[in-house]
Amino acid sequence: MTVLTIARRQLGETRWSLLFSAAAFFGLALLWNWGISEYQFREETPEESPPAAPSAEVNDGDASPTEEPTDDASRRRRRRGRPGPQVYVAFGVPGDRVLGLPPDQTPTLLMQVAMANHPLVFLVVLGWGIGRASAAVAGEIERGTLDLTLSRPVRRSTYMLAQLLAAVVVFGVLGLSIAAGHLVSDQFFRLNEPPSPADYLPMVASLAALGLAVFGYTLPISASDLSRARAGIIGLGITLAGIAALIFARQYEDYEWTADLSVFQYYAPVGITLEGSSEQYTDLSILLGIFAAGGLLALLAFSRRDLPSNSG
């Protein structure tokens, strides 16, 4: 069996989960662009127009103030409020790029790329990274399929390279599904200066690199263990520790160095799209380096370990 054959089999086993995740990202991108369009070109409705001055007419000597509309739509509008730029600043867009500018002049590309910092996107990407890595070796051993694969015969290095290739495809598909949602949105919503397809490549690369880095540091654990659950829990623990390190570094200046221990320190889809500086691409290279180093460590551990049954 070749690397491509094994990778295709691995992807085939998770094709429905991958398609569902990609469709969810595509749909989320459509909703995100609907929000951008609502902010940039929202037309004022009669309910949003300034209220008319109260009438000076007095009936029977009693003056009553003008009553506000009480229908359900008006109540929801007052509760929800008009879309504002603060949400995009919260997701990583520099304040000077959106605050104080007329809505129809705000940068569509940066506001779109900010979606890559959404918690739902993080959860899916991290889930795929930990899940794929923990299933790569430990999961196959639990299922009893690894010995069948390696008895064909297949070199252990070939099997591990196939796992790495499958991971690259998975995170590439997830990143491209977001970009596709942004591109298609131009056909449905009015947006200020819709970007070209090439403008989304830095975001796709950054998102894929984050997922690959998480996959990279979880894979050696899976290659050394017999339990998929244990490998996944350890990978999750490392991920949570990275989040905690980043929060800790921002709270205490004397411990800013702890942020460098977190993969999230090097994840900046908005920054790499906005600036594209050598520093931004260095951060991207660090994430990919973690993936490569994890793959190498996993290969060494997998090649030297004893496998149960007739796993080779």
From TrEMBL:
<feature type="transmembrane region" description="Helical">
    <location>
        <begin position="200"/>
        <end position="219"/>
    </location>
</feature>
<feature type="transmembrane region" description="Helical">
    <location>
        <begin position="284"/>
        <end position="302"/>
    </location>
</feature>
<feature type="region of interest" description="Disordered">
    <location>
        <begin position="43"/>
        <end position="81"/>
    </location>
</feature>
<dbReference type="GO" id="GO:0140359">
    <property type="term" value="F:ABC-type transporter activity"/>
</dbReference>
<keyword id="KW-0472">Membrane</keyword>
<feature type="transmembrane region" description="Helical">
    <location>
        <begin position="231"/>
        <end position="249"/>
    </location>
</feature>
<feature type="transmembrane region" description="Helical">
    <location>
        <begin position="16"/>
        <end position="36"/>
    </location>
</feature>
<keyword id="KW-1133">Transmembrane helix</keyword>
<feature type="transmembrane region" description="Helical">
    <location>
        <begin position="120"/>
        <end position="138"/>
    </location>
</feature>
<dbReference type="GO" id="GO:0005886">
    <property type="term" value="C:plasma membrane"/>
</dbReference>
<feature type="transmembrane region" description="Helical">
    <location>
        <begin position="159"/>
        <end position="180"/>
    </location>
</feature>
<dbReference type="Pfam" id="PF12679">
    <property type="entry name" value="ABC2_membrane_2"/>
</dbReference>
<protein>
    <submittedName>
        <fullName>Uncharacterized protein</fullName>
    </submittedName>
</protein>
<keyword id="KW-0812">Transmembrane</keyword>
